[in-house]
Design brief:
The complex is a heterodimer of chains A (517) and B (290). Chain A is α/β, with parallel strands linked by helices and 517 residues long. In chain A, 32% of the residues lie in helices and 26% in strands. Chain A folds into three domains: 138 residues, P-loop containing nucleotide triphosphate hydrolases (Rossmann fold); 70 residues, no CATH class; 174 residues, Rossmann fold. The relative contact order of chain A is 0.11. Chain B is an all-alpha fold. In chain B, 74% of the residues lie in helices and 0% in strands. The termini of chain B are far apart. The chains are: A alpha/beta (517), B mainly alpha (290).
Chain lengths: 517, 290
């Protein structure tokens, strides 16, 4: 018996955007029963490769084969050949139900009308069979991100996909959700009757180790390594991705003795859409300290940051910020006044709150700091000193290793990791007293993570107070001096996390899930 | 207020409601697919004009001409906005201006007057029950089309997240084009009714009903039955004004004409204050897909 041909294959595949090779001479094959992890930095060409296999971008060289047959790839052919692509960003229609989203385009009919009952039954059966339990009648708008991701998987399974291609499926999931998702995916592939394969793009090396049979590393569009997963370590993979040795980020112990309180939140209550999202939160962050906020998404983290920044009205309680004359109440100050008082914000959604994508890098760095870049000429008119701005911009791009280092390029042209570094650079460059960093490394590659971590710790060492909201336990363990667990709008516990003796992950996970303090 | 007075008010409301209902339904089907349809006013006017021009050949010819004009105008609008991705609001306004100019031009050519046609005696008859029933039925049918057919599902998906629909093989442009054509067909019934009701074409006889229908569509939460309800509300305002005036209430003519428009502003203000509770505009409204 001969081995079945690969489900999908790239042979010497090249894709070019203008003068830039997004993929160059990449060869890759995924066989039934195999999980291939595709890793690389932001902008290394991973998404391009997936899109090329799926026929969403034209090839500039090489060949794509489905089941051993050379094809000119197109989405229709890909679907017909059993490829199913799950995009990096959700491709779901929020007001429609789960069932409607799954069947859209291939609807069961009865008497010429939509057969809603059959659709719901089929989706329910499919969900149960693959351990993706979800109510087919719920509108997608009401689902958590974890549940929405399950709908995406159901969509490709409903179309009979044998090769699942997933672009960072766990980027927005909580640790527990991600674990569940990976287990489901592993089962899909290990079922011998299914003959399925999996091509997975991810940034999380522990996931690669947990689920993949083979690791393929892309760097600057070229395939630099293809290794069996058992035979390599995360450090080796990281080195192949970045092309150099990564210096581990180290947190030095805090100097002994009490430091002044830089941010004090007292009994904060915030309501949104009639629901109490923060229910009496009290916390203090001292100068030179990182306070981590751990918690499953939706337990009040977003509201905490928004309320401290002044973007959400506060029902009761207070927010105080250190100033030259001691703590100052900022509960009712507008956003601009808070920023001027020394508050900086790295928002969790960089596209919505962090950047104007069509502005240049320099203009994005200017936002919120306009006053600092004025010429002395007609001061009331605030004429921007562009030369000074550009010089400042180049300096920051260099300091944060932002690629490409073009201050005039639009922010849209940067990869996600570089966009995030840009936001961090802007926020930290004003020497703030207090930094709110919400999910600062979500969806960002190892190189960028390292830069961002180093900069946050650098700010801490210079005496800034950092409030770090994160769903990544690793990140919290590494950066936070203390970790507060937020559960259903309340602080469940505050744990010390000295570098010498970090908090145990299991303990943290238990508290995040509502376990006893 | 006697029972017969109220009955009369109800009948007038239904009769005046036909163009509001049909245009609001036309707007609903187009906007649910993601295409802003400010062309409604122009569609009403063009189909009325065509119906008037067809009237000398009989009522059926008038109706067919009106439907054809609505379809053709919608095809032009759809070609521009969906396929060529022109700005939907600007195109809609241009359609209205074009309709006004074209109607005056053709009136002059055919009847030698730029303001109105002569009386169209061929349209005598009791058409009101037919049109009113048809309008109410159209609301129900559109409700069913959106909710119970695969085309309706695809149409809604295209209006909310066209990229997602396309990734599943739904032909986004085709669905949007069909929605715009259906919009033209529905709206043209309103224009035809104006001519059948008044047995005459008068320049600008649509009188802002297409714009008010947009308000009805929004007030009705972009749902067919909601649109019918809201359209009847605006028609009630107009009917009330007309009947009060007929009873000798000293209301100037222009004040009467203002009533539905004033109500429109109040209704939209209310709708805005209600926020997104209940319903919100289709997420991809006004966004062409390349």
């Amino acid at each position: 018996m001969s081995a079945p041909p690969p489900l999908c294959e790239a042979v010497d595949l090249s894709v070019r955007y203008g003068s830039l090779w997004a993929n160059r001479g990449v060869s890759l094959a995924v066989r039934p029963g195999e999980v291939v992890a595709l890793v690389g930095e932001n902008g290394a060409g991973k998404s391009t490769l997936l899109h090329a296999l799926y026929g969403l971008v034209p090839l500039d060289g090489g060949q794509v084969r489905y089941h051993g047959q050379p094809v000119v790839p197109s989405p229709q052919r890909a679907i017909a050949a059993g490829l199913g692509l799950v995009h990096q960003h959700f491709m779901l229609v929020p007001p429609l139900t789960v069932a409607e989203n799954v069947i859209l385009g291939q609807e069961p009919r009865k008497h010429g009308l939509l057969d809603r009952r059959r659709a719901e039954e089929e989706v329910r059966a499919l969900a149960v069979r693959h351990g993706l339990a979800i109510d087919p009648r719920r509108p997608v708008a009401d689902l958590s991100v974890g549940e929405a991701q399950r709908v995406e998987i159901l969509k490709v399974l409903y179309r009979g996909a044998r090769l699942l291609i997933l672009d960072e499926p766990t980027a927005v999931l909580t640790p527990a959700e991600a674990e569940g998702m990976l287990r489901v995916l592993r089962q899909l592939v290990s079922d011998p009757a299914g003959g399925r394969g999996l091509l997975l793009v991810t940034h999380k090396l522990d996931e690669v180790m947990a689920v993949a049979d083979r690791v393929v590393v892309l760097r600057q569009g070229e395939l630099v390594a293809s290794l069996p997963a058992q035979a390599c370590s995360p450090a080796e993979i990281a080195r192949a991705m970045v092309g150099r040795e990564l210096q581990p980020v180290r947190r030095h112990p805090r100097p002994a003795g009490p430091a002044e309180v830089a941010l004090a939140v007292h009994e904060l209550v915030v309501e949104r859409d009639g629901v109490r999202r923060l229910d009496g939160v009290t916390l203090q962050v001292r100068a030179g300290e990182v306070l981590g906020i751990a918690g499953v998404e939706g337990n009040g983290q977003t509201e905490l940051c928004a309320a401290v920044m002044g973007l959400l009205p506060v029902r009761s309680g207070s927010v105080q910020l250190a100033s030259a004359a001691g703590l100052r109440d900022i509960t009712h100050l507008p956003v601009r006044a808070r920023r001027e008082a020394g508050l900086a914000w790295v928002p969790e959604d960089r596209h919505r709150h962090g950047l104007v994508l069509d502005f240049s890098l320099a203009d994005n760095l200017l936002l919120g700091h306009e006053g600092a870049f004025c010429t002395g000429w007609l001061p009331w008119l605030q004429v921007i000193d562009r030369r000074r701005l550009l010089r400042h911009g180049r300096q920051l791009l260099d300091e944060y290793d932002i690629q490409p280092p073009e201050v005039q390029a639009p922010a849209r042209a940067l990869s996600g990791g570089n966009q995030q570094k840009l936001v961090v650079a802007r926020e930290l460059s004003a020497q703030p007293r207090v930094i709110l960093a919400a999910q600062p490394t979500r969806g960002v590659d190892v190189g960028a993570i390292q830069t961002i971590h180093a900069q946050l710790l650098g700010a801490r060492d210079r005496g800034a107070a950092v409030l770090l909201v994160s769903a990544e336990l690793d990140e919290l363990q590494k950066l936070a001096d203390r970790i507060a667990v937020l559960y259903r709008g309340r602080i469940r516990a505050v744990l010390d996390n000295p570098p010498s003796c970090p908090v145990q992950r299991a303990r943290l996970g238990e508290l995040m899930a509502g376990g006893m303090a | 207020m006697s029972a017969s007075w109220l009955l009369g008010l109800g009948v007038t409301t239904l009769r005046l409601g036909v163009p509001y209902i049909m245009a609001a339904l036309g707007g609903t089907v187009s906007e649910r697919a993601g295409v802003i349809n400010i062309a409604l006013e122009g569609l009403l006017l063009l189909s009325a004009l065509a119906a008037a021009l067809g009237a000398p050949h009989g009522a059926a010819a008038a109706a067919l001409a009106g439907l054809g004009a609505g379809l053709a105008a919608a095809a032009v609008f759809g070609l521009l906005t969906v396929l060529l991705r022109a700005n939907q609001v600007v195109c809609g306004v241009a359609m209205f201006l074009l309709a006004d100019g074209l109607s005056r031009f053709l009136l002059k050519v055919v009847y030698g007057s730029t303001s109105n046609s002569p009386r169209l005696g061929q349209l005598e008859g009791h058409w009101a029950p037919l049109f009113v029933t048809g309008a109410l039925l159209a609301g129900l049918l559109l409700h069913g089309l959106l909710g119970a057919t695969t085309f309706g599902l695809r149409l809604r998906a295209v209006g909310e997240h066209p990229a997602a629909a396309r990734s599943l093989g739904v032909p986004v442009h085709r669905v949007r084009l069909l929605a715009v054509l259906l919009s033209g067909l529905l709206t043209s019934v309103g224009g035809i009714w104006l001519v059948f009701d008044q047995r005459q074409f008068v320049a600008l006889m649509s009188g802002g009903r297409g714009f008010i229908a947009l308000a009805a569509m929004i007030f009705g939460g972009w749902r067919p039955l909601g649109a019918v309800g809201a359209a009847l509300l605006f028609a009630l305002a107009e009917a009330l004004a007309v009947r009060l005036q007929a009873q000798g209430l000293p209301l100037p003519n222009y004040a009467v004409q203002m009533l539905p428009c004033g109500l429109t502003l109040v209704a939209l203000g209310l709708r805005g204050a209600m926020g997104t509770r209940g319903s919100r505009p289709p997420a991809a409204l006004g966004q062409p897909l390349d």
